[in-house]
């Protein structure tokens, strides 16, 4: 029943939002909608510190790493702070599905990361307290008070070119608007 509710929510979000109509289904690059839909398919996956696979469990950065790897073929770092450094800062008002949202949850900046879905919702691997991948609202008092910024991975090739991973990740795809 829980999965059904999330799928219904996804259908409503993606069919009622005209700004996403520019995703080209024939385009071979991943779209924001594809990223969000794939991520939503992981709702309920188990949280595991240090994990990056839904079959064994994932933490927040492992979840984001897994989604972008599977949908866009990107090899992101397994660390929220490192992800913030290879992405472009955007304002909260510029958020689009597939963008990253960061939070200060452990007395350190960029200590938690999730994927923005639209309509002020984001998906993330919650801590061991909640124990699963879940959808939350940016206006929730906890998340709003700990919001640490938003970032975009539109052209990760340029961002990764300054890291050690650059040589091993040529021809990375970009994410279409």
UniProtKB/TrEMBL annotation:
Phylogenetic classification of the source organism: Bacteria, Pseudomonadati, Pseudomonadota, Betaproteobacteria, Nitrosomonadales
Residues annotated as signal peptide: 1-21
Protein name: NlpC/P60 domain-containing protein
Keywords: Hydrolase, Protease, Signal, Thiol protease
Any single biological process term in GO: proteolysis
UniProt GO MF annotations: cysteine-type peptidase activity
Location of the NlpC/P60 domain: 29-154
Family as reported in the entry's similarity comment: Belongs to the peptidase C40 family.
InterPro entries in alphabetical order: NLP_P60_dom, Papain-like_cys_pep_sf, Peptidase_C40
Organism name: Sulfuriferula nivalis
Membrane spanning stretches: none
Record Pfam families: NLPC_P60
